[in-house]
Amino acid sequence: MKANKAVFNTLSQVNSSIVHSSKVKLILLTVMTINLSACSSLGVEPWERDLLAKKEMALTSSPVDAALDDHIYFSKEASSGGKSFGGGGCGCN
Amino acid sequence: MNNLNKKSKKTNKKVNLKAALSLATSALLGTSVVTAPVAQAKEADEWQFDSAFLVYSEVDRVSATEAIIAGTKTFDNDEILSLKLTVDALTGASANGAIAQPNAQTFTRPSGNGQYVTPAGETPLDDTFHDTRVQLNGQWTQPLADNITGSVGGHFSKEYDYLSLGVNGNVAYDFNRKNSTISMGLSYFQDTFTPEGGIPKPLSSMLVGDSSSSDWDAEFAKTRISDSEDKSTTDLLVGFTQVINRRMITAFNYSYSMVDGYLTDPFKVVSVLNSDGIAQDYIYENRPDSRVKQSTFMQAKYHFDDSLLNTVADVSYRYMWDDWGINSHTIDTRFTIPVGAASYIEPHIRFYQQSAADFYQPYIGDGKAQTGFVSADYRIGEMTAVTVGAKYGVVLNGGNELSFRIEYYRQMPTNAGFVDPQRLNSVDLYPVVEAVIAQVSYSF
Lengths: 93, 444
Description:
The complex is a heterodimer of chains A (93) and B (444).
Chain A: H1 2-41, H2 63-76
Chain B: H1 2-29, H2 37-46, E1 47-58, E2 63-74, E3 80-95, E4 105-108, E5 115-118, E6 125-145, E7 148-159, E8 162-175, E9 180-193, E10 199-200, H3 216-221, E11 224-226, E12 229-245, E13 248-261, E14 269-273, E15 279-284, E16 290-303, E17 312-322, E18 327-339, E19 343-354, E20 383-395, E21 401-413, E22 433-443
Antiparallel strand pairs in B: 1-2, 1-22, 2-3, 3-6, 4-5, 6-7, 7-8, 8-9, 9-12, 10-11, 12-13, 13-16, 14-15, 16-17, 17-18, 18-19, 19-20, 20-21, 21-22
């Protein structure tokens, strides 16, 4: 009887883990679908780009500052890049 | 009358600066320079220049000055040419990797020519650092098809002991009424390092003694393995940007970077201590010859309305991890706040935290013989860093922009769990590094 219970417990654990993983997959799929459909509904019409077109709204609003900062942090820290290429370029690291 | 003439000449000179730069750029490129004065003036209008002068100065350590001039020209059909010249000069002292001691310490310069003494209780700094670097970048961007933009670029950088050559290519695809963009880029760098004094033999002892003796050169040569070493870097970057609404845009990047070749710092040593914590020897560091770095990057920009002074907030986060055991978090925040009709102030806060590489050790204890990889370079040790600063910009008559930036950068290395010998309690093994960054920029 005990053995049966153990088997039952294991089976139910397996079952629940299958249910669990399929649930996770379902959630992931739903999130991805929502994201994708959300992306297509996100955004603006061309005539609504007044603010986005401003220089300060560019993702890199000052490329010169960004280049200078990248050079400093590349030579002083163990990380580089991420926003743009983090490649070589100087013997400072 | 004479004075008047002089004045008008001066004004002409100013107006012609941009035209002259445009002509010089055309000449450098080898593109045909139109000789008719009217055509020259028209061409000159199409170049946009950004220039900057920056001073980076660490307390008691390295100072660097850097000047940049970047020109961008948009041709018909939305083709864009960007060229950038960077010149920088570095002087001052840099940590050599050895730790502070209760007594004075003597080190040999990386070139093998002479020695320097670090006083008791102070972090050993090699004060022979000076270098000048010239860097050239060129980038060509153009539409390839409807909604597809392509870009190719080149990089050249040369300093006294270092040469770096690079190429890159990018493709971007816009969709969803240009509200979404997927991009992919590849870059490749080939670097050659030729330090004065050659490349030290990893883990060999630094030769310290009488550098004027007759057998010094022969003994020093025994600690060297070659005159130069190479390194290559391949980067892959995949990006996605999404306009959320009229006020907000977001970006997501993933990057994969492979670095192969000589990744050791030839100027860095590691202290070898006896059981009392006193340095017996200094050995040259040894790093793996490959490194794979990956990172994810997220950024959001938001344009607030009148109630928050039309401020633009720029917030980004980067998570980086590599196969050396280092991972890092970077949070970068800027607020561009308009002041009056033609100027702005931009506070900036950056927070950075990294864990130590697996082979990082502040020193080697108990005089153990070292095998494998080891480095005491604090830049791959555990560390937190903070940058706080502000920029003030003003748009002048004619649309040219002048800006000033001042920032304070503080690196705070921390103990990654090493238990130090008691004798070392009196010295600072993880000294704080402070720097000031000052910059003037002018766009015309």
